[in-house]
Design goal:
This protein starts with 23 loop residues before the first helix and ends with a strand. The protein is an alpha+beta fold and 66 residues long. The protein is 21% helix and 21% strand. The chain contains 1 helix and 2 strands; from the N terminus they run αββ. The chain has a domain of 45 residues.
Length: 66
């Protein structure tokens, strides 16, 4: 069985503050969301978009609202 079959995406929110471990453009994006969009009701979710050779690859930041 390939490693890819064991990796399941999580739908649970991350318990740690995402902004603490980021740098560069992702950190800017997170801080912009936190300071400007979150108060307006927008949500931010980080998700692994692909698993090349069973390992996490590209990560996407997904912005949503209710």
């Amino acid at each position: 069985m390939a490693a890819r079959e064991f990796v399941q995406p999580s739908t649970r929110p991350c318990q740690a503050e995402l902004g603490n471990d980021l740098g560069g453009a992702p950190k800017f994006d997170y801080e912009f969301w936190h300071d400007h969009l979150r108060p307006l009701g927008f949500n931010l979710k980080a998700e692994v978009l692909e698993y090349p050779e069973g390992m996490p690859g590209d990560i996407g930041l997904i912005l949503s609202w209710k």
